[in-house]
Amino acid sequence: MTKVRVRFAPSPTGALHIGGIRTALYNFLLARKTGGTMILRIEDTDQTRFVPGAEKYILESLAWVGIKIDEGVGPGGPHAPYRQSERKDIYSRYASQLVADGKAYYAFDTEADLEEMRKRTPNAQYDAATRMSMKNALTLSKEEVSSRIAGGAPHVVRLLVSPGQEVLVNDLIRGEVNVSTSQLDDKVLMKSDGMPTYHLANVVDDHLMEISHVIRGEEWLPSAPHHVLLYKAFGWESSMPRFAHLPLLLKPDGNGKLSKRDADRMGFPIFPLNWTDPKTNETSTGFRETGYLPEAMINFLVMLGWNPGTPQEIFSQAELIEAFSLERVGKAGAKFDILKAQWYNQHYLRAKPIAELSEYLLSALKNQNISCSADRAIQIVTALKDRVTYPQDFWEQGKLFFVAPDKFDDAAVSRKWNAEAVKFLKAFRDEVGKEPGLNAERAKGLMEEVAVSQAVKPGQVLAALRIALTGGMAGPDLMQTIEILGGEETARRIAFALQSLSAS
Question: Residue 235: left (phi > 0), alpha (psi -120 to 50), or beta?
């Protein structure tokens, strides 16, 4: 059995899209499932689109979600270099080999020539129907071709595609895909700047790096027939990797491919980490900085296209490796349901030990120069644990225990603040301040006692008590809140609310 060797091959043209992380993840899981090798290759042949910092961003993103690279950019390996810009001589040799074997040819057409071709025949492509009217090695004499090349004339190398043949792409996800070569153009393999196109570079590299499976996005499926033709042209058909083209990531409503613009409009990230565009200086917030945990992202992303065949939704990395197979990846596009991502994050966050969760709060408090004991932090986190989605929520929802409200929710006050509530709060203030060692159970008992003494039902005044303590209607369990605040602080806040709201 052929040893599994997979590669993730992003281009450093900007921030890595979260869909790229999913592609890397599927490659990684297959490698780990089979005891194979995960390779990282940087496809930077298009130097006009190169963005400084993008490669570092790719490496940091993969490390954040826990995708370990075995070979390639970073750890190195026997097939170095792994940046395509450093492999120009290799591609040039193989392009020359194709030309010498009659499988490719030089073309000298200018952009004006190509534009003229398109004017003559709308929707025309450079293929068997048009190539003989263009300036290339098939229409010029050998002497002319040699003279032009010797004189440094700009030229490209094109794949010679013979019409009237069938190309079979055997895809592990989509099955057999048959394409007629009459529909294919003579793809450019080497550009006039001496750099290869994706088509040549990825085929040569996948062959030399002994890649067994090419797992990539659906957008590359139309290019796959050309790649099959290249394997055949080189005589590498017997070692051609198996293809698997992953389904698209769709907008949450399923209507079209997910884009950065969609994510921005709907208010969720599209990149794994924060990214500042060096050209525009625009910063995009990443999933990490939004508060998503790596394990939640892995679990969320793997289910966008793959299913285990069981109702199970929560998987550790070890469980994913055991369960994963390309055969269970579907063809249909996957809706990017951000609410599901939040659900996963809530699950993994709440599953963490309380002591670890308290560190999120203590770290935020340190940044605010607020002191807090470890025991009190644990008490607060315990009260908030089932209410949070992101680590920063412990501070956002927990700051009420450290910062007393100085204003109150007008809508809540207009609905819940009344004479009965004021009467109850005055009496409760007087009693609760006398109990320094108050716990939640005693707070509830005291609240009920005072309610009876004031001839009111607890349900009629609890909302007003919450408003007095927190400024609004939201928050953790009210009795737990009183326990954490303590009797003295509870009384002080009630007094402030009574004074503020009676004056307004």
Answer: left
How far is Cα 416 from Cα 243, in angstroms, rounded to an integer?
Answer: 64
Catalytic residue at 407?
A: no
Looking at the structure, tell me whether residues 65 and 214 fall in a common domain.
Answer: yes
Domain assignment present for residue 195? The answer is no
Q: Are 364 and 392 within 8 A, CB to CB?
A: yes
- The Cα 51–Cα 57 span in angstroms is 11
Where do we find the tokens 């001839």? 455
Is position 41 within any domain?
yes
Cα–Cα nearest to 181, from 139, 129, 105: 129
**pLDDT value at 203 more than 80:** yes
Residues 419 and 378 in one domain: no
Q: Are residues 335 and 274 part of one domain? A: yes
Question: Does the pLDDT of residue 504 top 60, yes or no?
Answer: no
Catalytic residue among 33, 88, 257, 260: 260
SS3 content of the chain, % helix, strand, coil (to 5): 50, 10, 35
163 shares a domain with 97? yes
- Cα dist from 273 to 72, 227, 291, 435, whole Å: 22, 33, 10, 48
Q: What is the DSSP string of 206-227?
A: HHHTT--EEEEEGGGGGGHHHH
Structural domain for 376, as ranges: 352-393
Give Cβ neighbours of residue 406 (< 8 Å, ≥ 6 apart): 471
In a shared domain, residues 319 and 410 = no
Q: Give ∠ CA 475-479-483 in degrees, rounded to 5.
A: 105
Model confidence at 502, pLDDT cuts 50, 70, 90, reads confident
Return d(Cα 217, Cα 111) in angstroms, integer.
Answer: 30
Helices (H), 53-164: 54-65, 88-100, 111-120, 142-150
* CATH number of domain containing 266: 1.10.1160.10
- CA 181 to chain centroid: 36
Is the domain of 343 the same as that of 359? no
Tally of structural domains, the chain? 5
Q: Does a structural domain hold residue 320?
A: yes
pLDDT, tens digit, 9 for 90 and up, residues 139-195 = 999 999 999 999 999 999 999 999 999 999 999 999 999 999 999 999 999 999 999
Q: Which two tokens stand for residue 56?
A: 């570092």
The β-bridge partners of 178 are 168
Tokens of 204: 């040569």
Contact 328, 241 (CB under 8 A): no
Asked if residue 278 is part of any domain, the answer here is yes
Q: 186 with 210, same domain?
A: no
Q: Contact, 145 vs 96, CB < 8 A?
A: no
